[in-house]
Design goal:
two-stranded antiparallel sheet, about 55% helix, alpha+beta, five-stranded antiparallel β-sheet, 10 helices
């Protein structure tokens, strides 16, 4: 029915627009990343997984972030810090509103993190050294394509649900008309047939009294086809 199908592209468009609106409110952020090598007694500690986890926790600790914030005079947010530690390597990434600021913070985190490593693990011969200095890895926010794609997907799912719901049980079952489906079809067709809607609603009320388990007797098939012909023949 036209009234029902007309909503489907609107649902898809609404999902896409919602995704783009979410992206519009996301801050513009750039990421800078620095890579450090974990060493024990001058050799890479590639097989020490517990040590790598300890380094990841230390890199995000309050003492490191507080020191960085005080030295640079800017707030350093833990949620913008990204850590990967394993196989003797620690990758520190930081997101900021400009490429220059992201590089400054990433560099300072690497410096203060390395000092924290010496303070905590120096007695066991563990230290870190910079393998790859801070470099720009690109813009990480807003996620226009991702958010728009998610919104579009949600819109398509909503449209699919809206399309299948009235058709799921169908107007007929085992050759008998389903009153609830007829009632839905009547309301959906109201904008196209405003002069007939009240009569159709009255017929629906009468038919409900004749239904058994929402299904009409076979004997009323002709009545339904005659009364609701404009709806049943709509594409």
């Amino acid at each position: 029915m036209r009234a029902r199908t007309a909503w489907l592209p609107l649902l898809v468009a609404a999902g896409l627009v919602a995704g783009l609106i979410v992206a519009a409110f996301e801050p513009t952020l750039y990421r800078s990343q620095v890579t450090l090598v974990i060493e024990r007694n001058g050799k890479p500690a590639t097989a020490d997984a517990p040590l790598a986890r300890s380094f990841a926790e230390l890199a995000t600790s309050d003492i490191v972030l507080r020191n960085v914030s005080q030295k640079l005079g800017v707030p350093v947010e833990r949620k913008r810090l990204h850590i990967e530690a394993g196989n003797g390597v620690v990758k520190l990434g930081y997101d900021a509103g400009s490429r220059v600021q992201a590089a400054r913070v990433a560099q300072q985190i690497a410096v203060d993190f390395s000092q924290a490593v010496v303070n905590r693990f120096g007695g066991s011969g563990v230290q870190t050294s910079v393998f790859d200095p801070p470099h720009d890895t690109g813009r990480v926010s807003p996620h226009i394509l991702r958010d728009g794609g998610i919104g579009l997907l949600v819109g398509l799912i909503a449209a699919g649900i809206a399309w299948k719901r009235p058709r799921g049980r169908g107007l007929r079952e085992r050759g008998r008309w389903r009153v609830s489906a007829l009632a839905y079809a009547v309301e959906a067709a109201a904008p196209e047939h405003p002069d007939r809607i009240e009569d159709w609603r009255a017929y629906i009320a009468v038919l409900r009294a004749q239904a058994n388990d929402d299904l009409l007797p076979y004997a009323l098939d002709g009545v339904v086809r005659e009364v609701f012909a404009p709806i049943l023949t709509s594409p």
